[in-house]
Amino acid sequence: MASLLLMVKLYGVQVLGTSYSTGLPQPASSNPIPLILNIAIGIITAISLLFAVIGGFRFVLSGGDPQDVARAKSTVIYAIVGLVIAISAELIVSFVLNSPALGNI
Length: 105
Description:
Helices cover 67% and strands 4% of the residues. The chain is mainly alpha-helical. The radius of gyration is 22 Å and the shape is elongated. It has helices spanning 2-11, 33-60, 66-97; strands spanning 14-15, 18-19. It has one domain (26-102). A hairpin with a 2-residue loop joins strand 1 (14-15) and strand 2 (18-19).
């Protein structure tokens, strides 16, 4: 029973009118849009980095074949472009959501 109460305290559950907190900062609003956007941008960034690594491996393993080298270079270039777009999107979303004109959505 004591371990159950400890788990309840660690995970921030409300039991019989008593609420327990993890001590971690809580979001300022209950709006799920920033959370969803941050997760999506994080996934896009991870995929972009993965493709940059794949392109690097393809470049190393191309064996000097001009077509394979060109494909590997284009993979790396497109991955870097995707990474720049993802980071720019995160900056734009952060700017818009924290804009005083919109009242800090």
